[in-house]
Structures are given as C-alpha cells and as structure tokens.
Amino acid sequence: MAYGDPLLAEIESKLDANRPLSMEDGLALYRTWDVHNLGRLARKAKERKSGKKVFYVLNRYINSTNVCFAGCTFCSFAADEFKEPERVFRMTPDQVFAKAVETGTNFNQIHIVGGHDPRQLSLDYWLPLMRRFKTALPHVQLSLFTAAEIEYMAKRHRLSFPAIVTALKEAGLDNVNGGAAEIFAEPTRGKICPNKVSADNWLVIHEELHRQGIASNATMLYGHIESLEDRVDHLMRLRESQERSPGYNAFIPLAFHPDGNELSYCGWTTGLDDIRTFAVARLMLHNFDHVKAYWMIQGLKVCQVALQFGADDMDGTHGSTDEEMIYHSAGTSSGQYVDDREFRRLIEETGYVPVRRNSTYDEFPFDWTPSEVTPDSRRRPELAVSP
Q1: Which domains does the chain have, with CATH numbers?
Q2: What's the count of helices (H) and strands (E) in the chain, helices before strands?
Q3: Comparing C-alpha atoms, which of 328, 358, 350, 345 is closest to residue 106?
Q4: Are residues 207 and 244 in contact, defined by beta-carbon separation less than 8 angstroms?
Q5: Nearest-angstrom CA–CA distance, 324 and 327
Q6: pLDDT tens across 316-356, in order?
Q7: CA distance linking residue 58 with residue 320, whole number of Å
Q8: Reduced to 3 DSSP states, what percent helix, strand and coil does the chain have, rounded to the nearest 5?
Q9: What distance in Å separates the CA atoms of residue 113 and residue 285, rounded to the nearest whole number?
Q10: pTM score of the predicted model
C-alpha cells in the first residue's frame, strides 16, 4: 500500500498488531494530509469489529426539562428558572410517559435528557417512572441520565455512587447516556463546564455502572476551545477506563454548535474535522466496539461519509413527534425525525448492511414489532408542558 504520509504506515503496523496508539500517534492522525488512507485505516478497524454491519435503533427521544444550573458556556439549551422563566419547561412523569408512546410502541429504546433541575432530578421522580416504563413496555430499554445527573442525585440523596447505581438498576436502568464527558483535560474543562461533574467522577461513575451490569456510552465535545492534545488525551482516558471496567458500548463524537451560547466565536466545525474525528476515534479506541455518527448533530450527508471513516452506527429514527431541543437550540438544521426505511437506504448506499438494534446492540429484524401492548401503554393523557 502506497502512503503519502509515511507515519500512517507505522501506525498501521501497530494496529495490525493490536497495539494501543500513543498520544503522538493520535496527533499524527489528526494532522495527516493523507485523508484517503486515514479513512482506509479507520474502515479496516471498523470492519474488524462489526464487518459490513451498520446499526440504527427505533427509539424515542425526550427532553424532560431545560432547567439547569450547571452554567456550561457551550450550552444554548439550558434555562435559568429565575432569570428567564419564560423559557422554562419541565414535564411531569405522566407527560413523559405520554410523549414516549404517542406515536406507538414499536421502538426499542427510550432516550431521555434533561438538566440539573432541582424539581425533577430526584429518585422520587425517576424511580416510579422507570418502573412504569418497564411494566408497560418490557421490550424497551431505558437509556437515561448522564454521569452529571447521577452525581447530582447522589449528592441530593446523600448516597454513594455504588448505592445510587444499585437503586437505578433495580428500577430498570439499562444504559446511561454518554453526555457530560465534554473534554476531560484541565484547564479546558474548567473553562467550559466548571460546575459539572469532574472528569475523574465521570469515569468513576461509568466504571461503577459497568461493574453493576449497566452499559453506557461515551462522548467528546469537540470544535470549541480545546486543543488536539486535549482530544487525544480524552480518547486515551476513555480507552483506559474501558480496560479497567469494560461496559462502554459506543463512542459518540459531539460536534460543537455555536448558535446562542458563550462560545459562539469558535464557529462551526468543518466537514473535514468531523470525518477526521470519527477516524481518529475509531483508531485510538481499539477496545470500543462501536463509534456512532449521530445524524442529528452532523447531518445525514456527513454521517454517510463517516461510515467510510470508521463509524458503524447512525443512532435512531426518533418518533415522528419527538422534539430534540439541545442541538436545535444551538443551530442544527438536521431535522427531528428520519423514517427507518430512509436509514436503511442511506446505509445500503454506502455499501454496508443496515441492522436494527437496541441500546445494548442486541439485533432485531427490520420489521420486528412487540408481541403485545399492555393497557397502560395505550394511555394518551394530554401533554401540556408547563413550568
């Protein structure tokens, strides 16, 4: 194989020997101008893991509240209950359940994201709702919370991390979302999310989840004030965490969106930076099975290209009435819903085989449906979101 960049030949020999890449290797991958061979290496690594499969999930996505007092400088979604009450919304448990089932029950995952809302983020709110979901929709996996929310609840209820994880597991938690990782490296983290869970605690919480049998994802927010060294350091810490306590399903690169937040001067990520980040992640994270190209962040066209640069998952369809608000508040124009037939078409167009999954990557036929629907899941209480 002819290389324009000889460093890639050295890196390929390490990959073929299943040797972890170093900080210097990661920086070389980010800086190489030999993008075609970078993509080839990432595709090769992806196909070692999942062959020709590319995954997607039929899911429901709900933002349950936008009240948050974390004060992250990159966020356009959060609302201060006292300074901007006109923007505030929070959903009751009945409203969350109604939103989840209003377009039917043929989905395999419910993905809920909120904020640091003192009136919602408590075990008293979540445990009964989680049990209700598990009773009414036993085929649906619960992908809830981030490490930041779990830390918040642990402090609120004066529980250790193992104790709160046990409580959440007993209520039916299947997977924890990868958010709140942002960038681990200080001082960058201290500038963008000084009031959020620390990098060390983020890792400790995810490793405790894994020890108790709860899967999780991991993310990295890139394209703001971080350096390339920060990015590679972040990936290496995730890789080491997976070694200590296996349980991460997927890594999701999150491109920074600049509209309406304090870091708007950073601007938008470029398409080239996006696909480089997918490739570098796939090559650095040799012990992660999946790298996800989340279409709502990058858009469907970039996600198709990402499948040629190491990604093997395009996330979920969302319900036809779902409303993602975090990235839409920051300027994304990707839309809210994609029919699963369109997902399959886009994946097949790249030469891969679409595979329907759930949160933990169990596989389903594309036309799978739940065997029965319980009376509770047919309920449609009125959804009137209010403060």
Answers
A1: 19-44+58-371 (3.20.20.70)
A2: 15, 11
A3: 358
A4: yes
A5: 7
A6: 875 444 454 443 344 444 555 688 898 899 999 999 999 99
A7: 11
A8: 40, 15, 45
A9: 25
A10: 0.89
